[in-house]
Protein: 3-hydroxy-3-methylglutaryl coenzyme A reductase
Amino acid sequence: MSKSISGFSKLSKSKKIDWIVDTYFSNNKNAKHILKQYWNSDDKLQQLHDEFIENTITNYYLPLGVAPNFLINNKLYTIPMAIEESSVVAAASKAAKFWMDRGGFKAEVLSTTKIGQVHFMFQGSFESLKNFFSTIKPKLIEDAKPITKNMEKRGGGIIDIELRDKSHNIEGYYQLHATFETLDAMGANFINSCLEQFAKTFKEEALVFKDFSESEKQIDVVMSILSNYVPECLVRAEVSCPVTDLTENDNMDADEFARKFVQAVNIAEAEPYRAVTHNKGIMNGIDAVVLATGNDFRAVEAGVHAYASKKGKYSSLTHASINDGVFKFWIEIPLALGTVGGLTSLHPLVKLALELLHKPTAKELMQIVAVAGLAQNFAALRSLTTTGIQEGHMKMHLMNILNQFEATNKEKELLVNHFKTHTVTHSAVVEAIEKIRA
Ligand code: MEV
Structure:
């Protein structure tokens, strides 16, 4: 039976666990053991993880894998990926190797502008609000100097602040729409601090603005927050090769493969049901690298899917063409990433992942992440349009099924060997295990 508790966050970690176990697992003596099993034996490291969030009771592991052989702008990378889905790293590695032999990936950052908004209500004439805003704009920027001065020293900061009239959407609703350059930081804290300062100055100055009527002086700030929609923080990654170079063996006709591949992309461009799955496959690659490098995958997901709908209909994030016998496949996505700040200097595995990537700038990381998404999509479409997805997927899933049946190492060796030449299905694996055990 569930019960509520007050003051939970103030309990010690072991008292929190006792409460959880007594309340929810009174018949499961194992629950405490499982939670403790995932504690790190290094107390300092465990404390670091405990302090990332409130009410930590244990750690949640995900595998950290690597996909080698990514040639990006003529530089070789081994890409770290944190993900639980069995076939993702294998697919990325396969696509990396395929394109390494065909000139690799080309990637380019198109823009790096980030956005934040102060949403406020104003009752009065837009003309007098515009007049107030243009008078006060230099002070908005000046008052934020203590927050922006370090970022400015490095070449970033506030790019601009605009006043936007949104009263056609909601009566009395306006915005300060600000743009920022945050260099190697993802910039969420920097942007939010600037916005909260803008809001404070804006409200205070309105109260003493002589051209405002009494009601106009009462600006009502609703909220100040960055936007995770970053269509001007864009990266593009691409692969291309002659169509004739597209196949690795004689079983597949290169022209037919290229044609089907482009058709598959066209379907995802035209059909939202397919586009969502197509883009999910892209995000398999993107999220795994975003997570491994300590970035905010929820922010990336939200921004990317909004971008996929930018024309008013959800569509593919990748595109493909065949022109004059040349196959081209590319992705263009918004990615607000950081390689300094946040978890990047705190989480030992994040630091390691960034070191593995040659300590990239945020722009380089944008390129690497976009490439991981493109590679993942290439691998998925290649399987989908040729063998079907299950062949590779089930091969990688085999180990999960064997573990479900608590197969010994010897049994695993025998069965992995057996399934090199047999189709993996759940029932075929069960049958094979039963046969061995009999
Ligand atoms: C599975 O995680 C991802 C795929 O469904 C992507 C796709 O269909 O393109 C294979």
